[in-house]
Amino acid sequence: MDPFLDEPQSSGPGIDPMAMVRAFWRRKWLFIIPFILCFSMAAVAIKIMTPVFYSAGQVRIIVGNTETDLINNPARRYGSPRHVDRRALEEMDLLLSSPDFMERMVRELNLHLAIRQNQTQAGGTPISEEQAVMQAMNRLKSMVRIERDGSHLFLIGVRDTDPDQAYRMISHILDSFLDEYRASQLAFRTSTRDFLEKQLKGYRETLLENENALTEFQSGMASSTLRDNPINSRNLGYAEANLNHMLDRQRGSDRTEMAGLKQKALQVLDPLPKTNRFNADPAITTIINEMIDLSLSQSLLSATDREAEDFELNLVRLRVRLNNQIDTIVATSYPNLGYMERNHISQYIYFSLFQNGLKSVSNRLGDWVGEFRDFTAMQPGQSARLSELQAAVTKSTDLVNTMEQEIVTQNLNLEASQSEIGFQVKVRQKPVRPVVPIEPNKQKLLLMGFLLSLAIGSGLVVVAILLDRSFTSVQDIERSLGLTVIGTLPVIQDDIFERKRKLKILRWVTIVLGILAIAAVGFLVVYPRLS
């Protein structure tokens, strides 16, 4: 048996629980003393700590999807819906702790004046206004709290030793904060709109320069053939395709349809009425001219152009107006005819006038295409330069139109944001004057004392057991040394014993002072800072 083992050898397997209990019980004062000291220090902290009051208001953020595609969904800037609260908390915290906002609150609440007054009353060196503002900002920043209080709910509060001061400060800060936060939500849209307006100004200047260059080039050309010709290299293909389509229609389906309408009309009237009489009507002439101009403009566009649908809709409206006007004249001129008979006459006249207008469109469009083809064949250099200038004008025009539409969208979103459509920041619960202080928190302090004393007591017991190499019973001696004990002697209290007793007392005093120091730091320094 090794006589230098740190731990006594147990004859039984495993750990003896009763032996551990007895070992802890013999050192029970290592538990009792920390409990007494830590709870006493907790009571001292509760007694001497200055009461702190907390007044807060609850803010709710409502982010809803808009029901129209014209207004951008404000939730998109936060990412997925689960990120809304986290991003909103970050934005609110940055705004609430910003130096500009803190300085404005300090000056509006006159907190810097109170600091200068307290400095003067204390007999200290007077400080400047800037120094007082800086101190007040640091103090206010440590007093203001913002935290989540649920889904889309946030608490904004102020801690202060004066309940009236805490209530007054949070009431003013909350109102100012909401106004500032709402304004910050509009800032990025306002900046976007201002940027687009600045870009639009530059695009308009570029468009004006390109138009002036095109006009100057056209006026300086030897031939004035293309001065009033809207055909250019970009829309030449569309114009020729539409021209061929109109010619094929005139030679094919329109001619067949015209023959059928004429045959039906001849069954009612023979001879048929002349179309010159209807062309002389000012209203019909106006409608036909509008149809010709609209058809010519439509012929210069591609079939997939965004405006093609609008052109077709306007053309259908003009056809309806023309048909109604012809029906009115036929009904007045032939009152003895029935409805179906008048309808045959009206359809014949309507289609005749429509065919004449379509021929005018195809003739004029053919002249434009022919003029442009002749010009490009005879003057290839000027033609290339003209195409380049026309392309620059077209590109600038497209940019200006796109930018104008984007600015309209941004203005709509800005007005919607000012009306809090889809994004609202509201006060769900206004702050109230606090009655009961939140600090010192007795339950938290007592729990802290219990945990601290338990940790210190357990640590001391474990350390005492690990450092204790003495024998506590005859059985330990026999088991460790392998010798039989034949007798025991009482402790002789000599000088060595007295020195050991004094050393033990000194050790206990040191332990008690250490526990007091740890408890004092925990309750009087760490806890106030954490709270």
Structure description:
With 531 residues, this protein is of the alpha+beta class. Helices cover 69% and strands 6% of the residues. The chain has 17 helices and four strands. The chain has a four-stranded antiparallel sheet. The longest helix is centred in the middle third of the chain and has 58 residues, at 163-220. The model is unreliable at 1-13 (pLDDT under 50).
Task: Summarize the structure in short.
The chain is an alpha+beta fold and 531 residues long.
Largest sheet: 4 strands, antiparallel
- What is the number of helices? 17
**What fraction, in percent, of the residue positions are helical?**
55-70%
Fraction in beta strands:
5-15%
> What would the average pLDDT be, to the nearest integer?
78
Inertia-based shape? elongated
Core attributes:
3 domains; 4-stranded antiparallel β-sheet
Could you outline the blueprint of secondary structure elements for this entry?
Layout: H1 17-26, H2 29-48, E1 53-63, H3 84-96, H4 99-109, H5 111-121, H6 129-143, E2 144-150, E3 153-160, H7 163-220, H8 236-251, H9 253-266, H10 276-279, H11 282-299, H12 308-333, H13 339-378, H14 380-418, E4 423-429, H15 442-467, H16 474-481, H17 495-530
Antiparallel strand pairs: 1-3, 1-4, 2-3
